[in-house]
Amino acid sequence: MTQRGSKVPKDAVHHPLFARFYAKMSVSADLKGGIAAYRAELLEGLSGRVIEIGAGNGLNFAHYPATVSEVVALEPERTLRKLAAEAALRAEVPVDVVPGAAEAMPVKSEGFDAAVASLVLCTVRDLPRALSEIRRVLRPGGELRFFEHGIAERRGLATTQRVLDRTVWPLLFGGCHTARDTVAAIEEAGFELGAHRRFRVPNGGPQLPTSPCILGVARRPQDTDR
């Protein structure tokens, strides 16, 4: 067992202006854009100890089922972490909000039954390292539940995404990258990809750089390799 919190400063991520924008935008998207329903689908059937990576302002907390015994929610951005802590007080399951980055989680290996990544893998600085850490903290056979946006299948939009990622988008939107192939990265990290589906958000609306989304599950294989 190892613990990796000492190498990461408390505020490893600092985007106060974006955090305030995201806090308002995400609440509106949940209420008016149907995102809350995707959150509920993402978390359905979870049980045991769960680690949530990049909890943001804690909008997932209300959707955890009663079969979850504990949620450890990592959030590196101070403004969002404060909002998440407030949301944790309203949750129906125990939620502990702590500072921490996905690339070096301050928790022990193989300590969780499931991990949740919800609209966050686009922003991590080192995606392969973050996925390696997720695999480390999951028990063998543990689940990774993911709801992310990524590279579009349509060539024109995919080209736009790549251009934006190399120019202004990450600067304006808290380090977000719209052109990552998250599913491929999950498989390359050694996870077994399970059921998943692709869709657009908002459904039937304009093709925005963050419109192509995927929701699904992957598992850490039943082995002892890190």
Automatic annotation (TrEMBL):
What name is this protein filed under? Class I SAM-dependent methyltransferase
- Gene Ontology BP term (one): methylation
In the UniProt record, does the keyword Transferase occur? yes
Q: What's the superkingdom here? A: Bacteria
What SUPFAM superfamilies does its record include? Answer: S-adenosyl-L-methionine-dependent methyltransferases
Q: Which Pfam families match?
A: Methyltransf_11
Domain Methyltransferase type: start-end pairs? 52-145
Which Gene3D superfamilies does the UniProt entry name for this protein? Vaccinia Virus protein VP39
Query: Which Gene Ontology molecular-function terms are recorded?
Result: methyltransferase activity
